[in-house]
Amino acid sequence: MSTIAVVGAGKIGEALLSGLLHGGRPAEELLFTERHPERAAELTRRYGVAAVDVAEAAKRADVLVVAVKPQDIDPVLDELAPLVGPDSLLVSLCAGLPTALYERRFVEGTPVVRVMPNTPMVVGAAMSAVSPGRYATREHVRTVSELLSCVGAVVEVPESQQDAVTALSGSGPAYFFYLVEAMIDAGILLGLPRAVAEQLIIQSAVGAAKMLAESDEHPVILREAVTSPAGTTINAIRELEKHGVRAALLAAIEAARDRSVELGKVHEEPERH
Ligand SMILES: NC(=O)C1=CN([C@@H]2O[C@H](COP(=O)(O)OP(=O)(O)OC[C@H]3O[C@@H](n4cnc5c(N)ncnc54)[C@H](OP(=O)(O)O)[C@@H]3O)[C@@H](O)[C@H]2O)C=CC1
Ligand SMILES: O=C(O)[C@@H]1CCC=N1
């Protein structure tokens, strides 16, 4: 039995707890820390997982998952520093923060694995990318990858690619939700009842995602199969091109990557003496 503690059970921390429970991990093997007692009580009621303080989390957990906002990391590092060491295993889900930041603040040799997951972990369909820090061994990477494989797919990438991964799959679900939201609005514009528009678009999204995942065809081929000569789809595609939607996506994802880099830079600090 191994215990996993999530430090900061907000959106992604809760998604991880919920996904692990959904994947069959017993509640007794999970812990979390939260700074608002009402939020902690609500999560314990909802999931049957115990809320503890950071000291207890560090003492009892085999894997400590840090899931606070990058802007909130400093006090968490200060709290964790005297409690962790080479026998611990730290997992950071924080966008932009390099493993080197943790390594600088912790006892030398403390293993850290950087992970960029995404919220579909609540339904066992996450995409998580893992990168070992300087002191993380293959065994540490295996432990973290096995843990995450209970809540979706896992890929290992060099840490230098994590800002791009964050922009692509970390934020990725938001782009799809945004697209779905806009397409539902289009249904309203065309006079459909909202409930009908929602059903049409969500089922089309699920169907398209299933085809992307299950067929061997490239997305271009799948799109071409919908685009009949002189038909309806090509008229829509022409408008998408005219409005620069492809360029907008490239720029949007580049901006997300830049923000991830920036979040890491804010924490680029000189060695503490
Ligand atoms: N949301 C997402 O889809 C993804 C998020 N991430 C990363 O996960 C991290 C969390 O993001 P997200 O879940 O969206 O953010 P949230 O703000 O929802 O969650 C962060 C949680 O940490 C709590 N917290 C802050 N400081 C402490 C502390 N000292 N001790 C205990 N708990 C604390 C916050 O409490 P409070 O409410 O008081 O602030 C909050 O509940 C970020 O670093 C983000 O980059 C990574 C991949 C995807
Ligand atoms: O928006 C964010 O900063 C986080 C990281 C990836 C997804 N959500």
From TrEMBL:
PROSITE patterns to which the protein is assigned, alphabetical: P5CR
EC identifiers of the protein: 1.5.1.2
Sequence positions that bind NADP(+): A67, V68, K69, P70
One family name in Pfam for this protein: P5CR_dimer
Pathway field: Amino-acid biosynthesis; L-proline biosynthesis; L-proline from L-glutamate 5-semialdehyde: step 1/1
Subcellular location: Cytoplasm
One example of a Gene Ontology biological process annotation: L-proline biosynthetic process
Limits of the Pyrroline-5-carboxylate reductase catalytic N-terminal domain: 3-96
Principal location: cytoplasm
Coiled coil spans: none
InterPro entries linked: 6-PGluconate_DH-like_C_sf, NAD(P)-bd_dom_sf, P5C_Rdtase_cat_N, P5CR-like_CS, P5CR_dimer, Pyrroline-COOH_reductase
GO cellular component, one term: cytoplasm
Protein's name according to its UniProt entry: Pyrroline-5-carboxylate reductase
GO molecular function: pyrroline-5-carboxylate reductase activity
Catalysed reactions, as listed in the record: L-proline + NADP(+) = (S)-1-pyrroline-5-carboxylate + NADPH + 2 H(+); L-proline + NAD(+) = (S)-1-pyrroline-5-carboxylate + NADH + 2 H(+)
NCBIfam families per the UniProt record, alphabetical: proC
Keywords per UniProt: Amino-acid biosynthesis, Cytoplasm, NADP, Oxidoreductase, Proline biosynthesis
Enzyme class, first EC level, given as a word: oxidoreductase
Free-text function comment from the UniProt entry: Catalyzes the reduction of 1-pyrroline-5-carboxylate (PCA) to L-proline.
Residue ranges annotated for the Pyrroline-5-carboxylate reductase dimerisation domain, each copy included: 159-263
Family, as annotated: Belongs to the pyrroline-5-carboxylate reductase family.
Organism: Amycolatopsis arida
